[in-house]
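Protein Record: Sequence and Backbone Structure Tokens
======================================================
Tokens: labelled as protein backbone structure tokens, with as many entries as the chain has residues.
Question of interest: how does this chain fold, as expressed in backbone structure tokens?

___
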Amino acid sequence: MTEVTVGIGPVSFEELLAVAREGATVKISEEALAAIADSRQRIEELAENPKPVYGVSTGFGALATRHIPQELRKQLQRSLIRSHAAGSGPEVEREVIRALMLLRLSTLATGRTGVRAETAQAYADFLSAGITPVVHEYGSLGCSGDLAPLAHCALAIIGEGVVRDSSGEYMPAAQALEAAGLKPVELAEKEGLALINGTDGMLGQLVLALDDLRQLFKLADLATAMSVEGQLGTDRVFAQDLQELRPHPGQASSAANLRTLLADSGIVKSHQGEHCAFVQDAYSLRCSPQVAGAARDTADHAQLVAERELRAAVDNPVVTPDGRVESNGNFHGAPVAYVLDFLAIAAADLASISERRTDRFLDAARSRGLPPFLADDAGVDSGHMIAQYTQAAIVSELKRLAAPASVDSIPSSAMQEDHVSMGWSAARKLRKSVDGLRRVLAIEILTAARGIELREGLDAAPATAAAIEAIRAAGVQGPGTDRFLAPEIEAVVQLLETGDLLAAVEKVAGKLA
């Protein structure tokens, strides 16, 4: 298992993925511990000042006008965490919570939040021990931070609430702390606020989604190549000089992949030349680099936003480099929320064009010689008819999920927090969109493999042949009479999710863009 060191600089994409998905342990650098100590000294000075300071000696949100006496300030911090841990609904995935906690620790390590070193260390200890606080689906408005999700994590740090240990067992936080040899943190001035005021939940899910989508973009090109081949389409439209007439970088990458994947295809070569009666392919084949390329370009913009946000120290109030403690609005999730919504649109459209290519395989009037629904004995057998129904149901859902969350705002906290980003909601629906896109592509690839194999006597390209071989090696049979189809779909979904299908193709074709 690897170890990630959190310093005063940003956490990288690779480090976040190692902690969230691979269970990497975490430590805090000496430089970061020194920065934490410096800013904590400033908070302690302000705590002794009779002048009220938000988050240090006042209430929170609409209750910020209440000055809190010294003897009630520890209770203030505990009360903040307890009251804000108000999530509801299904549990959030372990990888999301680990990403969220690492990002909160990264902000604490900048020395801009005013927490004590032992409080920051508690987050590193939880991550290293594999203890995951139970966080619920609903509770964040994506403004003033991902309050409820972060509060559930902070609640576990103080020994309250519930968690899952490294084996996934559900238990009280106090029990998990004791088993790991850890002690609960007793929060001091400002610390409760510092633990819940950030965009960490939505940002963590953005990074995870980008990691998934980068792989799915390549798989979308593979699905396209297999459909072009299986439907006797042409690769001429993907020529580099044609693509350069419209110089979008994502489009160029997608088209380059298609040229690579279709190289040396006996099927494509079999219908080239003057004898071929097919003048133009349908848009879902011909325009695939334009759609897949636009999705890539959208992801590039989203990654730029994510990289900026990773460099941020989001808290309110914040300890500035010159020692001031200032209120601010940096916790507003709009920058992250927008790109989360953009990506859901891209995922829906990629799935939509994939479903259209699949449907062409199944319609004998458009499949260029293939049997209806790719059935063995059409009428007795239904072939892949209902697999396309499944695709259509998912695509319809993805179109609903593409409706932006970030255009909505519901005022809260007695109108003090009167405009919010709904970025957490945008992140949650994007996770569903990514899963849906993967399933739609899996069905296209499964269907295209069958269509290619029905072109008897014609050799597939080495790259697409490798994909078909990997699918068959996973236990999915080739053309034949109707079988229980759901397990076959799921087997291909798993090949996509694990990266095994892409690895099999790239072993033959080289790395795709």
About this structure: The first strand starts at residue 3 and ends at 6. The chain is about 55% helix and 5% strand. The beta strands are 3-6, 25-28, 88-91, 132-133, 136-138, 162-164, 170-172, 318-319, 325-326. The mean pLDDT is 94.
